[in-house]
Amino acid sequence: MINERDFTLGFFHRISRPAVLLLLVFIAGCGKMAPPRAPERIRLRTTELEGVQRGASIILSWPSPPLAKEKTSRSYVARVDIYRLTESRGQEPVLDVDDYESAAGLIGFLDRAAIEDQVKTLGRLQYIDKLNPTGAANNRLRYAVRYVNEGEQKALFSNTVAIAPFPSVAAPPQDLRKNLDEQDLIRLEWTPPDSNVDGTKPASIVGYNIYRRLARRQIGKDPLNAAPLRETVFDDRRFQYGAKYVYTVRALSQGATGLIESADSEPFPYSPVDTYPPAPPEPVTIASANNVISLFWPSSLEPDAAGYNVYRAESPGAADSDWVKLTSSPAAAVTFRDDRVTTGKRYYYRVTAVDKYENESKPSKTVSETANP
C-alpha cells in the first residue's frame, strides 16, 4: 500500500524540475495573499515651514533637519524638493495630502551642497520664489517642501504655507549711504523708490526698516528701528568700532493683511573707526614730599578710556618735543609718583588720557611743583 508521503515523493520524482517549480508557485498562490507593502519613506519632515512676501518674491524658510553623513543611510538628505500649488483666492484650500501631491507642481529644489552651505551661512534653510507681480495678483499660493534621500525615497510633505501675493509693493530704496559720522553716531540716508514692483507709480510707502549685519554673516535679524521709520534717515548709536558691518534698508507697503517689506536695497558695507580722542583729565593736583612729586586726577568719563600718560618738562613754555613722557605705556591708575627729581628743583607736568583705540587727548593744564626733601 502506498501512503500519502510515498505518493507525493514519487510524483515529484516523475515530473520535470520546471514543472515542480510551477506547481509550487501554484500551491503557494492558493493561500491568502499578503497585503502590498507601502514604499519606504525618509522619516524626516518639518512642520515649521514659514513664508513671507518680500517685494516680488516669496521667501520660504524652515529649520534644517539632522544631516546624516552616510549616503547609504535612509535618513540621508540628498535634496529638498519645493512645491507650489496655485489656488484661486475664493476656492476651498487644498489641505488633503494626496490632493495636494496630485495638484501641486515641483518649482525647485536645494541640492546637498546648497543645503550644507545654507546651514553654515544662514543657520536654516531658505528658498526664494520670484513671482510675476501682476500674474499672481488674484491667486493664493500654497507651498510645501519635502526631503529626498540618495535612493530617491521621498519624505512626507511639510506643513503647507499659503500666501496671497500683493502686487503694489514698493521697489527697494536706492543709494543707501553715510551722511554723518560723529563720535558714537553713524547717520545713514537713502533715496526712496519711485515705483512699485508692478510698475505702478507713485511707490506705496508707509515707512522703512533698516537692518545691520556683520559682514561675515549672510542674514540679519530684527531691524535696528523699533518702529517703522517715517523719514529717509536713521541714526545708529549702538555699534562697535572696528566691526565690519553691512547695512540694508527696506521700504514698507500696506498689504491686505499687514505691512509688506520691499526687497533689500543695495548693501552698504561700513566699518566705523574711532578717531575721536577722549577729553583731557582735569583738574590735575600736585604735591611734593620726601623727594617725590605726586600727581592726582579724576577718572576719565569716556567708556573706552584705557589709561593715562604723564609728561614732564623743566619750563612751562617748553616746546612739545621737550616734554618727556614718564609712562612707558598708558597707566591705568589715576595717580603718579615721580621719584626721579632733584631736591629744590621745580618741575612742570601735564597728563593726557588714552582710549583703547590709541587716541590720545590734548594735555591737561600744566601744573608744577618743587621737589621737597
Which properties best describe this structure?
single chain, 373 residues, mainly beta, Immunoglobulin-like, 3 domains, 4-stranded antiparallel β-sheet
Q: What is the CATH third-level topology name of the largest domain?
A: Immunoglobulin-like
Estimate the global geometry from the Cα principal axes: elongated
Number of helices: 4
* Helix percent band: 10-25%
Estimated structural class: mainly beta
Mean pLDDT: 89
CATH superfamily of the largest domain: Immunoglobulins
Largest sheet: 4 strands, antiparallel
The strands making up the biggest β-sheet line up spatially as 4-3-6-7
CATH-level-2 architecture of the largest domain: Sandwich
Element pattern in H and E? HHEEEHEHEEEEEEEEEEEEEEEEE
CATH class of the largest domain: Mainly Beta
| Number of structurally distinct domains | 3
What distance separates the N and C termini?
142 Å
| Beta-strand segment tally | 21
Residues in β-strands, percent: 25-35%
Descriptive account of the structure:
The structure is a single chain. The protein contains 4 helices and 21 strands. By secondary structure, it is mainly beta. The protein has 3 domains: 50-163, Immunoglobulins (Immunoglobulin-like, Sandwich), CATH 2.60.40; 174-270, Immunoglobulins (Immunoglobulin-like); 285-370, Immunoglobulin-like. Strand 12 (245-254) and strand 13 (259-261) form a beta hairpin. The longest helix is centred in the first third of the chain and has 13 residues, at 17-29. Mean pLDDT is 89; it is low at 1-15 and 18-31.
